[in-house]
Amino acid sequence: MAGWPIDPELVIQANRQRSAELARDYESLGERLARRGLEIDSITEQVTRFAVAIPTWGVGTGGTRFARFPLPGEPRDVFEKLEDCAVIWQLSRATPTLSPHFPWDAVDEPAELRARAAVFGLGFDAVNSNTFQDLPGQAHSYKFGSLAHTDGFVREQAIAHNLECIRIGQALGSKALTVWIADGANFPGQQHLTRALERYLASMRVIYAALPGDWRVFIEHKLYEPALYATVIADWGTSYVCARELGPKAQCLVDLGHHAPTTNIEQIVARLIGLGKLAGFHFNDSKYGDDDLDSGSINPFQIFLVMNELVDAEVRRAADFAPAYMIDQSHNVTDPIESLIASAQNLQRAFAQALLVDRDALAEQQDRNDALLARETLMAAFQTDVAPILARARANKEGAIDPIAVYRASGYRDRKAKERPQELSGRSGIV
Ligand code: RM4
Ligand code: MN
Ligand code: MN
User: pTM (2 decimals)?
Assistant: First the structure.
């Protein structure tokens, strides 16, 4: 495609150097998989179709509550973010859409943004609303909440913002709105727990009523932070009840970092699939809380177990199952482009491994209560090194066999450091 941010010739040359080695690795893996009754090309073909959306906020350097250490050449507006997302898409071939965040990505002409994205073959996934911070000139503060606020004027302002997000999303070609609210209480007694949820639901009903026919609204729950005592939409149970109350266009989004550390997330995923309410994911990884670390960097087994539920649902054609896959990460110490490429790859890896699960054998072992062999069946899939499949899937679509190596060799970051002089802002925070 003309206009790729990285010279396609670089990709071709780098792939040429690695192609003989890849062919050998692929052939040998193919032989081993054939012994297990699996046809490697058909797995590769399915992996080629795996897609996950890039969060526009993820390409800027993240930070903690304490500090942010901006990277040279980081994007200053959504058009520059788009360019960085195009690099990730060009090299990984797994990230054909963006998930924008408003008002962070506000533009005068959303149609222009859509057209600029289309030049790279990029589209738009769910739009994310933001009622968790105040903007200059805003009439009412979100300090004490938004959709669940005690003051009706604040709730109206937050509703209006969500309706505006739907309008922008329509112009971008998006089909879903993700609503995460920071509403909650920092102290026992601060908030009437029952009434806060009632206010939330009343606000969400107005937003729901404004959804275009082919749109969905994704409810994103989160255990804590910034509300440190009681978050209004704290868990998947509350999220599910709200989605059910609202109607069929409302579903539950699972951000992997939004649970207590020992929570069995794959079981939540299975429950939501069974109930026809799984909206999709914000993929990331974590050790303690909403760490927003790179997908697959801490607990790749968990991601595999989640993918296992997703592939299982796909295979048995579960009802109302059309999950949206998005990444939601904060890159504090790495180049976000590299982190997002690696994360997309890790998600694709878990997906490929889940495709290798011998589901007939597993079902039979489960029916016989053969706990040990059932576990072995899952582990056989998880322990398979599927790297050659991922590399071949990328190469088949003119992506890079080794995307990080090509990215580093391209000098893209240095070029952008010159083109995008740093803005001095003392801001800390998530993004
Ligand atoms: C929240 C949540 C939302 C994201 C914000 C930036 O913790 O994960 O999805 O939009 O962070
Ligand atoms: Mn999230
Ligand atoms: Mn989060």
Answer: 0.97
